[in-house]
Design brief:
The chain is of the alpha+beta class and 247 residues long. Helices cover 50% and strands 22% of the residues.
């Protein structure tokens, strides 16, 4: 239990063995540490040096020989706090660098792209990445919307649409079934138009910005993301025809 916790905060197995050995033995020399911790003599000074830098081990010199001691277990909390502070600093640096990183990514993108995302997390990544690139001038088009899928996916889409509404992005939705009552969630949303088109299909299809998303919500969920001007225009035309015939 102790070992797994220490490993989770970033200590290596060797560092954990040496620290716990020193905690048990108290002040001692490397020979005793090597014997009790069963650490290679070629590794002991490297491990001790890392523990000293982390503030978890100290030493004194007696008669030209180093004697090492483990810092109080309280120092582990201080070590974790230092790591948290470092991560927060790195987070701020990344936030500052994010615009330039995104610009690099955009400049490298091809005019035509196709990506397949598998599994729930891949599905979630795909739909939110597409949404983040949409501007307020775009209108999202969604066809094949039904409540007859798992609650997990229904809640994911509600979260997605709440973010869309927060960003004041318009959306037209073609709902393919009314029995579940799922469509009522969207009827209450701003920037949202809703029509009913009878006929449930295994996959749904969205136009989000310059991308077409083809989505499946079954046991093996997937999201096929297509960026292609002509394909997008064909889907938009197809959607508009269905929209005109829907109620």
């Amino acid at each position: 239990m102790q070992e797994s916790l220490l490993e989770e905060i970033g200590l290596t197995k060797g560092e954990i063995k040496v620290y716990l050995t020193l905690l048990k033995l108290g002040e001692t020399t490397t020979g005793k540490i090597i014997e009790d911790a069963q650490i290679s003599s070629g590794k002991i000074y490297e491990i001790l040096d890392k523990l000293i830098k982390k503030g978890l081990v100290g030493f004194i010199i007696k008669e030209k020989t180093k004697h090492f001691t483990a810092a109080s277990p309280q120092s582990i909390l201080e070590y974790v706090q230092r790591k948290e502070n470092e991560l927060q600093h790195k987070k701020l640096e990344i936030e500052k660098a994010l615009p330039s990183l995104l610009a690099i990514g955009k400049s490298a993108k091809n005019e035509y792209e196709t990506h397949l995302y598998l599994g729930f997390k891949g599905f979630e990544t795909a739909i939110f990445d597409a949404l983040h690139e949409v501007t307020g001038n775009d209108t999202v088009l969604a066809v094949g919307v039904t409540g007859k899928k798992s609650k997990t996916f229904n809640l994911l889409w509600q979260r997605w649409h709440k973010e869309r509404v927060r960003r004041k992005i318009k959306c037209r939705i073609l709902v393919t079934e009314l029995e579940s009552g799922y469509h009522r969630v969207f009827q209450k949303m701003k920037y949202t138009e809703l029509k009913h088109l009878k006929g449930i299909t295994p996959a749904a299809m969205d136009v989000v910005g310059d991308k077409v998303l083809i989505l499946t919500h079954g046991e093996d969920p997937s999201c096929l993301v297509i960026k292609h001007r002509d394909i997008r225009q064909s889907i938009v035309t197809f959607f508009q025809t269905m929209w005109n015939h829907a109620k």
